[in-house]
Amino acid sequence: MTAIDLGGFRLHVVSDGRFKLDGGAMFGVIPRKMWQKAKAADEENRIDMGTNCLLIEAASALVLVDTGLGDKQDEKYQRIFAYEEGAQRLPDSIRAAGFAPEQVTHVVLTHLHFDHCGWNTRLDAAGAPVAAFPNARYFMDRGEVEHARRPNERDGASYFSWNWEPLIAAGVVELFDGGCEVVPGVRAVKAPGHNADMCVVTMDGSDGGGSGDSRAIFLADLVPTAAHAPIPWTMSYDLYPLQTLESKRLWLPRLAAENWLCVFEHDAANPLGRIVEEKPGRFVAVLLESPAAS
């Protein structure tokens, strides 16, 4: 995928391949008759899910936002979620963008569900999980780490401690509370709803004074695909759906008014677009022409 210049940043969408989730769960109360027009389901009612991570070239840093599925799960687990066979995985996607994993300086996690932090670690020759980006500092929300250590029955299956505990033990994790500036112009900002402490990541390539042409947002599971842009189109996976609505009401008018570039982490067709207000209170995504990274 062609790099995108954003003020002082250069952005690369880097993929870890596709997987599948139940379409009904992905669209909550929205009837299948409506959502299948945007996302076709297979015979098991599953839709394709992208793993669109983001690599940000800054002046003196290389920042990676989220790390996809990883390769530590066994074959049975990968079959359950229909991991894409033969897909280019995240380390090779980073190499295809012109970088080595060792060049990543910062990794910022929107949250710690399995499909967002799988390549935080890899297994070494002895089968022990170690940092997949050995020269990076990893940025995680403190509340999300605390929840991941003691999840509830509803989302416990989404957390695997090998994705963060070895990093904490190695002393390479920076914990933040509610948000932080990772490098100048790149911020993690709390956007609760999917869970209590999920973050989106904003980029301002103009050092704070620019227009939408120099601003972008990585929407994580707030707007996981372009089809989820309308405010009521939310996931059954959200722990706090009413907070998801409030977070969307906060962000979508701003993104539309200021013409921000948007990265849709789970859109399998195209990761990039912009939010527009189709009519008062009705927001939709207009996708850019660039295809999803592969």
Describe the structure.
- The termini are close together.
- The chain has helices at residues 23-27, 32-35, 75-80, 90-96, 114-117, 142-149, 165-170, 241-258; strands at 4-6, 9-15, 19-22, 46-49, 52-57, 62-65, 106-108, 121-123, 129-131, 137-141, 173-176, 179-183, 186-190, 199-204, 215-218, 261-263, 272-279, 282-287.
- β12 (179-183) and β13 (186-190) form a beta hairpin.
- It is an alpha+beta fold.
- It has eight helices and 18 strands.
- Helix content is 20%, strand content 28%.
- The model has no long low-confidence stretch (mean pLDDT 94).
- The strands form four sheets. The chain has a seven-stranded mixed beta sheet with strand order 1-2-5-6-7-10-11.
